[in-house]
Amino acid sequence: MRKRHRSVAAFAVSAQIIVGILLTAAPASAAPASGEVTRLTFTVPTGPRATATVNITFDRPISSAAAAEIREDTAAAPAGQATTVEHITCGQEIVRSDTQGGASLRYECYPLYAVLNWFFRLSPALQATVVGTVDEQGASWWRNGVEQPRNGQHLGIPADYLMHGSLLKVWNGDVVDYQDYISWQHNIGPGGRTAVVFAGSLALG
Amino acid sequence: LASHIADDLAYARRLVEATLERLGPAAQGLHILDISTTEPVTPPRPGLQTGQHLRITVGPGPDLAGPDTIGAHFSMTVPRDQATLATVDQVQEHVIETFYVAVPPCPDHQHPLRTAVLDGVPSWVCPVDVAHHAEPILT
To answer: For an interface test with A, which of B90, B91, B103 has the most A Cβ atoms less than 10 Å from its Cβ?
Structure first.
């Protein structure tokens, strides 16, 4: 059996991709002592008119100083960008990146229909936090506000896996919203689980 | 289970079984490992209408995870012909990408057949010339 192997250079995250970080964990085994926390919640700007809320919980309590350091590191990195609808025209490809990963969206038009092909890969920095493998829920997408058949789910894939899918059929004039959810066990501090959501909106044509 | 879900479950199982069989020897080691309803997702912005889906997990087993395994989705809230093509496309793409084979083969051509709706019937068709070859996905 030949295994799928992809070694494509890092892709870029689309400008309108919202990336929220959610580091969750198994229920804490011990109540936090004074000066310790098990959860961080804060909001970071993600564009001129948008923000992203970051929730971090840990398997075990960590010191307030360590929490502040993690918060500072996380907030310093752009978690995402504005949720404005961006236009894309036939044959156009949007390729961008941020600290969470890279993505590409290509709009292909044919005589009777069109298709949006997308790719996403976690950034090397996030790949380095992966313990074991990564789970991808499968992209959900909406055409003019109505949810369409979801893309395939991939569980237990390598951290450097090139996630991808196709949104079809679409037409010029459509507004397409998309969202995928990627999670993994992380090695930050006492460990826990990380979830990255990427989503956005495109106006076609 | 609501009767429409039970009906969709049975249809989705039959559809994926037929697809795996049509994909030939490359897919011989793949089986339906699970079929279940999915939990609705929280849409990325207000005003989006959430659908209902089935997830058909296909792989060598027994684990439900791994690079050779896919959770193909079947939508219960779009027209059935559209849902059919989307599910078959996911299984076909998974087999092509996992085993590097062009299946199902288009007769006398080097490319695989693709899915399309012909006269209301979800079908395998030649991607270059429908008149060259077309067959229903489910017989």
So the answer is: B90
